[in-house]
# Entry
Amino acid sequence: MAGGNKKYSVVEAGNLGFGQVGSLFLDASGAASPPTGLMFIAITFLEDSIFDASGGLVSEDENQYANTQAAAHNESDGSETATQGSGGLQIDASNTFPQGATIFGRWSEIDLTSGMVIAYIG
# Structure
């Protein structure tokens, strides 16, 4: 967790999950990663934005969080007892996230083809 040996109160520890560790601004000029041991937990789009097709949005668990590496929550065997859900699609370069939208998850890398975002760390 952030802060090394720092001990957090219950409220402070809860706030870590809401981006209280900080944020960063990113445009299409490069990729970003959170500090070691942390993840991006929310992304707010300041302009219509497109992620790079490969490595544009890398999730902590590609089966749980929407990402550019795989289709999260898309049971591949088509069974009605899907344990991972079904219908999820992989984000690709044809998907535009509109200005003003915010998405939540756990991502280890963000790389934009176009647009601007603020990414919150937690």
